[in-house]
Amino acid sequence: MPDCAAPSAAAEIRCPDRPGAVTARRQPSGPGSAFGPGRLAMGGVWAVAAGLAPRLVPPERVPGATALVFSGIAVASVLGVPAGTWIGRLGGWRAAFTVTAVLGGLVALVLRRALPPLPAERAVRLGGAPRLLREPGPRTALLVVALLVTGHFAAYTYVRPVLEQTRGVGAGAIGALLLVYGVAGVAGNFAAGRAAARSPRVTLLVLSGLLALTVPLLPPLGAALLVVWGLAYGGVSVSAQSWVMAAAPDDRETGSALFASVFNAAIALGALLGGRAADGFGVAAALWLGGALAGTAVPAGLVGARTGAGGTGAAAGRRGDGLEPGSG
Question: Which one of 28, 116, 318, 320 has the fewest CB atoms closer than 10 angstroms to its CB?
């Protein structure tokens, strides 16, 4: 008997005896989208990949390169589940996993030949994470990420049952709407990448406010808001990572590892909180919870940025507030 609270990557789970959780569907859209060993591997990938752009391109090209790296998330969200489902229908679920493993091996070979040697800039020790969290800039950036991503996944875990209950949305249109959401996410990733080049903090806080306004209004105002949701959330990863890198420029490896860890923990926490809200008050409550958490990220980021801007020592000397000259 499948667990109604544990959606899989290629299947939906219906729970007729639990009205608050009528359907759950896994939609990969951020660091750590796989389960089991795959989730462990993805956590390692993001701890390294998220900080690669500053080491591969000149400083003036870092924002665009970071957006390109993170575009993989958005494209995978659009193509991954449909491709896996199609392969699974042709050859079974084992075929889908086999194809994924082969593609992973091919990517490793390409990276081996295409990338220059990139030894660690400095040794990453366990004590580096608590030290970085004591600095106002990185701590504020990670707090905003935690609130925003928790809110998104509290709501998005239940977006399909919400759409099923939304007026004017037929069952056959839901797949197309989710595809449009994914395409909008790709566009949002590159748009936010350009904005984050000027100020990642402001960009992420604007996206937080946009999600706070959009997500709870999806049921009463209609599925068109799903496009806005996709545009906004598509820019979260690139702007959040840019903020963390700006807040910890001398310790990018530790900053990237903390970013990936917080993101993964927020995915799990968001799905849990969204499930409790849906079970207790209906699936629309999960969207209201998600919007509230995203909205809370805005004052948290504003207050934390003021504290970081007034910091002393290493945090201030390294622009630990994550603010760039002229960002306002």
Answer: 116
